[in-house]
Amino acid sequence: MRNMKVTNKYLFSGLFMLASLAASGQTGTVVTAVPSLSIAPDARGGGMGDVGAATLPDYYSQHWNPAKHAFLESKAGATVSYTPWLRKIVQDIALVYASGFYKFGYEENQAVSASIRYFSIGDIPETNLEGQFVSMISPYEMAFDIGYSRKLTETFAGGVTLRYIRTDYSTATDENTTAGNAFAADIAGYNEAYINIGSVESILGLGFNVSNIGTKISMDDGNTSYFLPTNMRLGASLTYPLDEYNTLAFNVDLNKLLVPSRPVQKDGESDNDFADRAESVRNTSSISGIFKSFGDSPDGFKGELEEITWSAGLEYAYNNQFLLRGGYYNESQRQGNRKYFSFGAGFKMSAFQLDAAYLISTADSNPLDQTLRFSLGFNMEGLRNLFK
Protein backbone atom coordinates (compact mmCIF):
# COMPACT_ATOMS: atom_id res chain seq x y z
CA MET A 1 0.00 0.00 0.00
CA ARG A 2 2.85 2.39 0.80
CA ASN A 3 4.40 1.84 -2.64
CA MET A 4 1.07 2.58 -4.26
CA LYS A 5 0.86 5.90 -2.38
CA VAL A 6 4.34 6.87 -3.49
CA THR A 7 3.50 6.00 -7.08
CA ASN A 8 0.32 8.06 -7.00
CA LYS A 9 2.13 10.94 -5.40
CA TYR A 10 4.79 10.92 -8.10
CA LEU A 11 2.15 10.74 -10.78
CA PHE A 12 -0.15 13.49 -9.60
CA SER A 13 2.58 15.81 -8.37
CA GLY A 14 4.21 15.50 -11.75
CA LEU A 15 0.92 16.17 -13.50
CA PHE A 16 0.41 19.31 -11.45
CA MET A 17 3.82 20.66 -12.34
CA LEU A 18 3.71 19.66 -15.98
CA ALA A 19 0.19 20.97 -16.48
CA SER A 20 1.64 24.46 -16.49
CA LEU A 21 4.41 23.58 -18.91
CA ALA A 22 3.38 20.82 -21.25
CA ALA A 23 1.05 21.04 -24.23
CA SER A 24 -2.55 20.08 -23.72
CA GLY A 25 -4.79 18.13 -26.03
CA GLN A 26 -7.32 20.97 -25.98
CA THR A 27 -7.17 23.46 -28.84
CA GLY A 28 -6.22 27.01 -27.99
CA THR A 29 -5.60 26.27 -24.32
CA VAL A 30 -3.87 29.03 -22.34
CA VAL A 31 -0.93 27.47 -20.48
CA THR A 32 1.19 29.14 -17.79
CA ALA A 33 3.82 28.31 -15.20
CA VAL A 34 3.42 28.65 -11.41
CA PRO A 35 -0.29 27.69 -11.39
CA SER A 36 -0.41 27.92 -7.58
CA LEU A 37 -0.55 31.71 -7.92
CA SER A 38 -4.12 31.30 -9.18
CA ILE A 39 -5.36 29.18 -6.27
CA ALA A 40 -7.81 31.02 -4.02
CA PRO A 41 -5.98 31.02 -0.67
CA ASP A 42 -8.83 31.87 1.72
CA ALA A 43 -12.06 30.22 2.79
CA ARG A 44 -14.23 33.33 2.50
CA GLY A 45 -13.77 33.78 -1.25
CA GLY A 46 -13.49 30.02 -1.67
CA GLY A 47 -16.90 29.56 -0.07
CA MET A 48 -18.51 31.80 -2.69
CA GLY A 49 -17.21 30.17 -5.86
CA ASP A 50 -13.88 32.05 -5.78
CA VAL A 51 -15.11 35.64 -5.93
CA GLY A 52 -13.34 38.60 -4.36
CA ALA A 53 -12.62 41.49 -6.73
CA ALA A 54 -15.49 43.59 -5.34
CA THR A 55 -16.73 41.82 -2.22
CA LEU A 56 -16.79 43.92 0.93
CA PRO A 57 -13.19 44.49 2.09
CA ASP A 58 -11.75 41.86 4.40
CA TYR A 59 -8.42 40.63 5.75
CA TYR A 60 -7.91 38.44 2.64
CA SER A 61 -7.97 41.33 0.15
CA GLN A 62 -4.28 41.04 -0.75
CA HIS A 63 -4.99 38.17 -3.15
CA TRP A 64 -8.28 39.37 -4.60
CA ASN A 65 -7.93 43.14 -4.75
CA PRO A 66 -5.31 44.95 -2.62
CA ALA A 67 -7.04 48.31 -3.21
CA LYS A 68 -9.77 47.20 -0.79
CA HIS A 69 -7.38 47.54 2.17
CA ALA A 70 -7.92 51.31 2.16
CA PHE A 71 -11.61 50.77 3.00
CA LEU A 72 -11.10 48.43 5.95
CA GLU A 73 -12.38 49.73 9.28
CA SER A 74 -9.64 47.97 11.24
CA LYS A 75 -6.28 49.68 11.57
CA ALA A 76 -4.28 46.46 11.28
CA GLY A 77 -4.94 42.77 10.74
CA ALA A 78 -3.39 39.46 9.76
CA THR A 79 -4.56 36.12 8.34
CA VAL A 80 -3.39 32.57 7.90
CA SER A 81 -4.99 29.95 5.62
CA TYR A 82 -4.44 26.30 4.84
CA THR A 83 -5.64 24.59 1.65
CA PRO A 84 -4.98 20.85 1.20
CA TRP A 85 -4.44 19.67 -2.39
CA LEU A 86 -5.38 16.23 -3.79
CA ARG A 87 -6.50 15.36 -0.27
CA LYS A 88 -8.09 12.07 -1.36
CA ILE A 89 -4.78 10.76 -2.68
CA VAL A 90 -1.95 12.20 -0.58
CA GLN A 91 -1.70 14.06 2.71
CA ASP A 92 1.24 16.47 2.39
CA ILE A 93 0.48 18.57 -0.71
CA ALA A 94 -0.96 21.89 0.41
CA LEU A 95 -1.01 25.66 0.04
CA VAL A 96 -0.15 27.71 3.12
CA TYR A 97 -0.92 31.43 2.95
CA ALA A 98 -0.43 34.33 5.35
CA SER A 99 -1.07 38.05 4.91
CA GLY A 100 -1.25 41.26 6.89
CA PHE A 101 -1.98 44.98 6.53
CA TYR A 102 -1.52 48.26 8.39
CA LYS A 103 -3.42 51.52 7.80
CA PHE A 104 -1.94 54.99 8.30
CA GLY A 105 -2.07 58.56 7.06
CA TYR A 106 -4.74 61.23 7.18
CA GLU A 107 -7.97 59.59 8.36
CA GLU A 108 -6.11 56.30 7.81
CA ASN A 109 -6.78 56.49 4.08
CA GLN A 110 -3.63 54.54 3.15
CA ALA A 111 -2.48 51.00 3.83
CA VAL A 112 0.60 48.86 3.41
CA SER A 113 0.21 45.10 3.13
CA ALA A 114 2.18 41.94 2.56
CA SER A 115 1.57 38.24 1.99
CA ILE A 116 3.45 35.01 1.50
CA ARG A 117 2.20 31.82 -0.12
CA TYR A 118 3.98 28.49 -0.11
CA PHE A 119 2.74 25.57 -2.20
CA SER A 120 4.45 22.39 -1.06
CA ILE A 121 4.33 19.32 -3.28
CA GLY A 122 5.60 17.25 -0.35
CA ASP A 123 8.58 14.95 0.00
CA ILE A 124 9.11 12.72 -3.04
CA PRO A 125 11.64 9.87 -3.18
CA GLU A 126 13.85 10.15 -6.25
CA THR A 127 15.22 7.00 -7.89
CA ASN A 128 17.67 6.33 -10.72
CA LEU A 129 16.99 4.28 -13.85
CA GLU A 130 17.66 1.08 -11.93
CA GLY A 131 15.00 1.98 -9.38
CA GLN A 132 17.51 2.64 -6.61
CA PHE A 133 16.82 5.42 -4.10
CA VAL A 134 18.94 8.52 -4.75
CA SER A 135 17.52 11.30 -2.62
CA MET A 136 14.40 12.85 -1.17
CA ILE A 137 13.26 15.99 -2.99
CA SER A 138 10.73 18.62 -1.90
CA PRO A 139 9.40 20.60 -4.91
CA TYR A 140 7.62 23.86 -4.14
CA GLU A 141 6.26 27.12 -5.49
CA MET A 142 6.57 30.26 -3.39
CA ALA A 143 5.63 33.94 -3.68
CA PHE A 144 6.17 36.93 -1.41
CA ASP A 145 4.63 40.33 -2.05
CA ILE A 146 4.21 43.79 -0.57
CA GLY A 147 1.43 46.20 -1.46
CA TYR A 148 0.30 49.79 -1.07
CA SER A 149 -3.23 51.14 -1.37
CA ARG A 150 -4.72 54.60 -1.00
CA LYS A 151 -8.10 56.28 -1.19
CA LEU A 152 -8.03 58.66 -4.14
CA THR A 153 -11.60 59.89 -3.57
CA GLU A 154 -14.24 59.22 -0.95
CA THR A 155 -15.44 56.20 -2.92
CA PHE A 156 -12.43 55.00 -4.95
CA ALA A 157 -9.08 53.49 -3.97
CA GLY A 158 -6.15 52.29 -6.01
CA GLY A 159 -3.53 49.72 -5.11
CA VAL A 160 -0.26 48.26 -6.38
CA THR A 161 1.59 45.12 -5.33
CA LEU A 162 5.16 43.98 -6.02
CA ARG A 163 5.85 40.23 -5.98
CA TYR A 164 8.85 37.91 -5.92
CA ILE A 165 8.20 34.37 -7.19
CA ARG A 166 10.37 31.28 -6.84
CA THR A 167 9.87 27.68 -7.91
CA ASP A 168 12.14 24.72 -7.33
CA TYR A 169 11.55 21.38 -9.05
CA SER A 170 15.27 20.55 -9.23
CA THR A 171 16.39 16.96 -8.77
CA ALA A 172 19.70 15.18 -8.13
CA THR A 173 19.41 13.14 -11.33
CA ASP A 174 18.61 15.97 -13.78
CA GLU A 175 21.24 18.72 -13.92
CA ASN A 176 19.17 20.66 -16.48
CA THR A 177 16.45 21.44 -13.92
CA THR A 178 17.12 24.52 -11.81
CA ALA A 179 15.19 26.80 -9.48
CA GLY A 180 13.18 29.51 -11.22
CA ASN A 181 12.85 33.16 -10.17
CA ALA A 182 10.53 35.90 -11.39
CA PHE A 183 9.18 39.32 -10.45
CA ALA A 184 5.66 40.61 -10.98
CA ALA A 185 3.25 43.39 -10.04
CA ASP A 186 -0.50 43.84 -9.53
CA ILE A 187 -2.54 46.95 -10.38
CA ALA A 188 -5.94 47.18 -8.70
CA GLY A 189 -8.86 49.52 -8.11
CA TYR A 190 -11.97 49.39 -5.95
CA ASN A 191 -15.01 51.68 -5.76
CA GLU A 192 -17.50 51.47 -2.89
CA ALA A 193 -20.61 53.65 -2.95
CA TYR A 194 -23.99 53.77 -1.26
CA ILE A 195 -27.03 53.53 -3.51
CA ASN A 196 -30.75 53.51 -2.79
CA ILE A 197 -32.84 50.56 -3.89
CA GLY A 198 -36.34 51.71 -3.15
CA SER A 199 -36.10 53.02 0.39
CA VAL A 200 -33.18 50.76 1.33
CA GLU A 201 -29.61 52.07 1.33
CA SER A 202 -27.30 49.41 -0.13
CA ILE A 203 -23.59 49.18 -0.93
CA LEU A 204 -22.45 48.78 -4.52
CA GLY A 205 -18.87 47.58 -5.00
CA LEU A 206 -16.94 47.57 -8.27
CA GLY A 207 -13.39 46.31 -8.55
CA PHE A 208 -10.59 45.17 -10.83
CA ASN A 209 -7.22 43.55 -10.35
CA VAL A 210 -4.66 42.88 -13.09
CA SER A 211 -2.23 40.53 -11.36
CA ASN A 212 1.15 38.94 -12.05
CA ILE A 213 2.32 41.44 -14.66
CA GLY A 214 6.00 40.64 -14.84
CA THR A 215 8.90 38.67 -16.17
CA LYS A 216 8.83 35.16 -17.51
CA ILE A 217 10.20 32.27 -15.46
CA SER A 218 12.68 29.56 -16.42
CA MET A 219 13.27 26.20 -14.73
CA ASP A 220 16.24 25.16 -16.90
CA ASP A 221 18.79 27.92 -16.33
CA GLY A 222 17.29 30.24 -18.95
CA ASN A 223 17.08 27.83 -21.88
CA THR A 224 13.28 27.92 -21.88
CA SER A 225 11.02 30.57 -20.37
CA TYR A 226 7.34 30.37 -19.51
CA PHE A 227 4.60 32.93 -18.94
CA LEU A 228 3.37 33.72 -15.45
CA PRO A 229 -0.44 33.50 -14.94
CA THR A 230 -1.08 37.19 -15.67
CA ASN A 231 -4.77 37.60 -14.96
CA MET A 232 -7.45 40.28 -15.28
CA ARG A 233 -10.21 40.04 -12.68
CA LEU A 234 -13.33 42.22 -12.84
CA GLY A 235 -15.98 42.12 -10.15
CA ALA A 236 -19.19 43.64 -8.86
CA SER A 237 -21.09 43.23 -5.61
CA LEU A 238 -24.31 44.44 -4.04
CA THR A 239 -24.79 44.31 -0.28
CA TYR A 240 -28.46 44.63 0.61
CA PRO A 241 -29.68 44.98 4.23
CA LEU A 242 -32.80 42.91 4.82
CA ASP A 243 -33.35 44.55 8.19
CA GLU A 244 -31.33 45.86 11.11
CA TYR A 245 -29.55 42.54 11.72
CA ASN A 246 -29.64 40.64 8.43
CA THR A 247 -27.81 41.43 5.18
CA LEU A 248 -27.42 39.64 1.88
CA ALA A 249 -24.57 40.22 -0.57
CA PHE A 250 -24.59 39.26 -4.26
CA ASN A 251 -21.15 38.94 -5.88
CA VAL A 252 -19.86 38.12 -9.36
CA ASP A 253 -16.35 37.93 -10.86
CA LEU A 254 -15.03 37.57 -14.42
CA ASN A 255 -11.48 36.36 -15.09
CA LYS A 256 -9.29 36.19 -18.18
CA LEU A 257 -5.68 35.06 -18.40
CA LEU A 258 -3.64 37.69 -20.26
CA VAL A 259 -1.33 35.11 -21.81
CA PRO A 260 -1.06 34.05 -25.48
CA SER A 261 -3.09 31.01 -26.47
CA ARG A 262 -1.29 27.81 -27.34
CA PRO A 263 -0.92 27.80 -31.14
CA VAL A 264 -2.70 25.12 -33.18
CA GLN A 265 -1.49 23.88 -36.55
CA LYS A 266 -3.69 25.18 -39.37
CA ASP A 267 -4.98 23.15 -42.28
CA GLY A 268 -2.34 23.08 -44.98
CA GLU A 269 0.35 24.58 -42.75
CA SER A 270 3.68 22.77 -42.97
CA ASP A 271 5.34 21.37 -39.87
CA ASN A 272 8.23 23.79 -40.26
CA ASP A 273 5.96 26.82 -40.59
CA PHE A 274 3.97 25.72 -37.55
CA ALA A 275 7.15 25.16 -35.55
CA ASP A 276 8.35 28.66 -36.44
CA ARG A 277 5.02 30.19 -35.44
CA ALA A 278 4.97 28.28 -32.16
CA GLU A 279 8.53 29.41 -31.44
CA SER A 280 7.50 33.01 -32.13
CA VAL A 281 4.71 32.72 -29.53
CA ARG A 282 7.13 31.23 -26.98
CA ASN A 283 9.53 34.12 -27.56
CA THR A 284 6.84 36.77 -27.12
CA SER A 285 7.57 39.10 -24.21
CA SER A 286 5.19 39.01 -21.28
CA ILE A 287 3.98 42.58 -21.94
CA SER A 288 3.37 41.91 -25.64
CA GLY A 289 1.62 38.70 -24.63
CA ILE A 290 -0.91 40.68 -22.60
CA PHE A 291 -2.08 42.60 -25.68
CA LYS A 292 -1.95 39.56 -27.96
CA SER A 293 -4.09 37.57 -25.53
CA PHE A 294 -7.20 39.54 -26.51
CA GLY A 295 -7.21 38.38 -30.12
CA ASP A 296 -5.04 35.31 -30.68
CA SER A 297 -7.43 32.43 -30.02
CA PRO A 298 -7.39 29.86 -32.85
CA ASP A 299 -11.19 29.83 -32.61
CA GLY A 300 -11.58 33.57 -33.06
CA PHE A 301 -14.02 35.62 -30.99
CA LYS A 302 -15.79 32.51 -29.73
CA GLY A 303 -12.49 31.19 -28.42
CA GLU A 304 -11.74 34.48 -26.67
CA LEU A 305 -15.09 34.30 -24.88
CA GLU A 306 -14.33 30.72 -23.83
CA GLU A 307 -11.15 31.97 -22.13
CA ILE A 308 -13.29 33.99 -19.69
CA THR A 309 -14.24 32.22 -16.48
CA TRP A 310 -17.06 33.47 -14.30
CA SER A 311 -18.06 32.91 -10.72
CA ALA A 312 -20.99 34.05 -8.61
CA GLY A 313 -21.55 33.91 -4.88
CA LEU A 314 -23.96 34.84 -2.10
CA GLU A 315 -23.14 35.80 1.46
CA TYR A 316 -25.71 36.05 4.24
CA ALA A 317 -24.70 37.77 7.47
CA TYR A 318 -26.51 37.96 10.79
CA ASN A 319 -25.44 40.90 12.93
CA ASN A 320 -22.16 40.86 10.98
CA GLN A 321 -21.07 37.93 13.17
CA PHE A 322 -22.51 34.74 11.71
CA LEU A 323 -22.11 34.23 7.97
CA LEU A 324 -23.31 31.64 5.46
CA ARG A 325 -22.00 31.46 1.88
CA GLY A 326 -22.52 29.67 -1.39
CA GLY A 327 -21.27 30.03 -4.95
CA TYR A 328 -20.56 28.53 -8.34
CA TYR A 329 -17.48 28.64 -10.60
CA ASN A 330 -17.57 27.96 -14.34
CA GLU A 331 -14.77 27.44 -16.86
CA SER A 332 -15.09 26.37 -20.48
CA GLN A 333 -14.52 22.68 -21.15
CA ARG A 334 -11.90 23.63 -23.73
CA GLN A 335 -9.94 25.70 -21.19
CA GLY A 336 -9.76 23.30 -18.26
CA ASN A 337 -13.39 22.45 -17.47
CA ARG A 338 -13.32 23.52 -13.83
CA LYS A 339 -16.94 23.63 -12.70
CA TYR A 340 -17.90 23.45 -9.06
CA PHE A 341 -20.21 24.56 -6.29
CA SER A 342 -18.79 25.77 -3.02
CA PHE A 343 -20.27 26.41 0.39
CA GLY A 344 -18.93 28.16 3.43
CA ALA A 345 -19.53 29.66 6.85
CA GLY A 346 -17.87 32.27 9.02
CA PHE A 347 -17.81 33.42 12.61
CA LYS A 348 -16.58 36.91 13.42
CA MET A 349 -15.67 38.44 16.77
CA SER A 350 -13.93 41.69 17.68
CA ALA A 351 -10.50 40.02 17.80
CA PHE A 352 -10.67 37.26 15.21
CA GLN A 353 -12.59 35.75 12.31
CA LEU A 354 -12.82 32.06 11.43
CA ASP A 355 -13.96 30.95 7.97
CA ALA A 356 -14.47 27.52 6.43
CA ALA A 357 -15.28 26.41 2.87
CA TYR A 358 -16.18 23.15 1.15
CA LEU A 359 -16.04 22.45 -2.59
CA ILE A 360 -18.10 20.00 -4.66
CA SER A 361 -16.95 19.55 -8.25
CA THR A 362 -19.49 18.99 -11.01
CA ALA A 363 -16.84 18.17 -13.64
CA ASP A 364 -14.82 14.96 -13.92
CA SER A 365 -11.98 16.00 -11.64
CA ASN A 366 -10.86 18.82 -9.39
CA PRO A 367 -7.94 18.69 -6.94
CA LEU A 368 -10.08 20.45 -4.32
CA ASP A 369 -13.17 18.25 -4.74
CA GLN A 370 -14.74 17.48 -1.35
CA THR A 371 -12.02 19.42 0.42
CA LEU A 372 -12.57 21.44 3.60
CA ARG A 373 -10.53 24.65 3.86
CA PHE A 374 -9.98 26.98 6.82
CA SER A 375 -8.87 30.60 7.23
CA LEU A 376 -8.23 32.52 10.42
CA GLY A 377 -8.07 36.33 10.56
CA PHE A 378 -6.95 38.55 13.43
CA ASN A 379 -7.95 42.13 14.21
CA MET A 380 -4.86 43.56 15.92
CA GLU A 381 -6.82 46.32 17.68
CA GLY A 382 -9.29 43.76 18.94
CA LEU A 383 -6.49 41.55 20.22
CA ARG A 384 -4.88 44.48 21.98
CA ASN A 385 -8.16 45.39 23.70
CA LEU A 386 -8.71 41.76 24.60
CA PHE A 387 -5.48 41.58 26.60
CA LYS A 388 -5.74 44.98 28.28
TrEMBL record:
The keyword Signal applies. It comes from the Bacteria. NCBIfam families: PorV_fam (NF033709), T9SS_OM_PorV (NF033710). Keywords: Signal. It comes from Dysgonomonas macrotermitis. This is Type IX secretion system protein PorV domain-containing protein. Residues 1-25 form the signal peptide. The lineage of its organism: Bacteria, Pseudomonadati, Bacteroidota, Bacteroidia, Bacteroidales. Residues 26-262 form the Type IX secretion system protein PorV domain. It holds the Pfam family PorV.
